[in-house]
Design a protein that fits this description.
Elements lengths: L6 H14 L3 H15 L1 H27 L4 H15 L7 H19 L1 H4 L5 H10 L9 H10 L10 H8 L4 E2 L2 E2 L13 H21 L9 H18 L3 H23 L2 H20 L1 E8 L2 E8 H19 L10 H10 L9
Antiparallel strand pairs: 1-2, 3-4
Helix pairs in contact: 1-2, 1-5, 2-12, 3-4, 3-13, 5-12, 10-11, 10-12
Length: 354
């Protein structure tokens, strides 16, 4: 299953926008802005998570280096660190996953607007394409159907008059360019849209990494993964209807504006300073010594110990009490011979004859 399944949700939402603003490109633009506005709280949460991860990254690296030859111990210490200080390094991934799901959902809608925006069933669309002799690229069939009917093709028997007219009146023009066309690698006016997508993509990634400082946190292949993924979507812009380029360009512009806004209102450096102060306070608290009563050589004495040692002593004491309490209980399952012996030792019930 691909992320394209999300088109089932996005399609009806775009249909609502198209009902108010009957233009395919304008629908994509307005829809994209709405998605970015709705996802803003999630993006702010991501920014907080990134700042927190930046603070704890040195501690995580220290653990990874210390236990590089013991993966189990390394995972235990990393988990302990996360639980002790209450942070999740994977929390910042959810907005990226949401963006990916929406992205592929939009690609699906751009491929198949007749189905998802106009609401015509897929089997009816396929029959209409066959009746008009349309074939070739499966992903381009619906946009080919739109263009054929726009160019005067007669009504196929598979379509009702209402369905035929909805396709005929489906407005796909934007500044004189059909959003159903595919730019390819030809020097035509269509190239404006993929190029705009490429420029805004590079600007968005560069600005995001510069403001948030994430470029310095990425290591190895991860450092270039964001660039690679976005470059792959740019390639998509040249091979799918240019309506996708309109969406992607609008999305990138919204991301630039969102990054500038969140950096001003929810500054990453401010969050990092807060988390660094929190980390320093917790470290100081764990090192602070307290007076506690402990047993040494059978005698109770008062000692000053840090919280970590106190927790260790409490844990050892709890284990000792548990071992003492359950000392006489069996901890291993019975063998078959022991089960048979117990069964034989049970008193036999006498049958009562009536």
């Amino acid at each position: 299953m691909s992320f394209g399944f999300f088109a089932v949700i996005l399609g009806p939402l775009m249909r609502l926008v198209y009902g108010i603003l009957p233009n395919f490109a304008v629908t994509l633009i307005v829809f994209t802005i709405l998605v970015r506005v709705v996802s803003l709280p999630l993006n702010i949460k991501q920014q907080k998570s990134m700042a927190k991860t930046a603070v704890f990254q040195p501690l995580m690296t220290e653990i990874q280096e210390k236990y590089k030859n013991n993966q189990q111990k390394q995972q235990e210490e990393l988990m302990k660190l996360q639980q002790e200080y209450g942070f999740n390094p994977m929390a910042g991934c959810w907005p990226m996953l949401l963006d990916m799901v929406v992205l592929f959902g939009v690609i699906e809608v751009v491929y198949r607007p007749v189905r998802y925006i106009l609401g015509i069933p897929a089997d009816v669309i396929n029959q209409a394409c066959e009746q008009l002799g349309l074939s070739g690229n499966f992903n381009a069939l619906q946009t080919s159907l739109i263009q054929a009917i726009h160019n005067g093709a007669a009504q196929p028997a598979a379509l009702t008059t209402e369905q035929y007219l909805s396709i005929k009146n489906f407005n796909t023009m934007f500044f004189g360019i059909d959003m159903c066309d595919i730019a390819g690698l030809r020097l035509t006016p269509l190239m404006i849209f993929p190029i705009a997508a490429a420029v805004t993509m590079f600007l968005s990634v560069w600005l995001t990494q510069k403001i948030t400082g994430t470029a310095g946190q990425m290591q190895g292949g991860m450092k270039y993964m964001m660039w690679f993924m976005n470059a792959w979507f740019i390639y998509y812009c040249f091979t799918v209807p240019v309506g996708f380029s309109v969406y992607y360009t609008t999305s990138n512009i919204c991301m630039v504006l969102r990054t500038a806004f969140t950096n001003k209102v929810y500054n990453v450096d401010r969050y990092k300073a807060e988390y660094e102060a929190e980390l320093a306070a917790k470290k100081a608290a764990s090192k602070a010594k307290k007076k506690v009563l402990v047993k040494e050589n059978g005698k109770e004495v008062v000692k000053e110990l840090p919280q970590r040692d106190i927790d260790r002593i409490r844990l050892e004491r709890a284990r000792a009490l548990a071992a003492e309490k359950y000392a006489g209980e069996r901890t291993t399952p019975l063998t078959e011979a022991e089960k048979a012996e117990q069964e034989a030792a049970k008193p036999q019930k006498k049958r009562v004859l009536k």
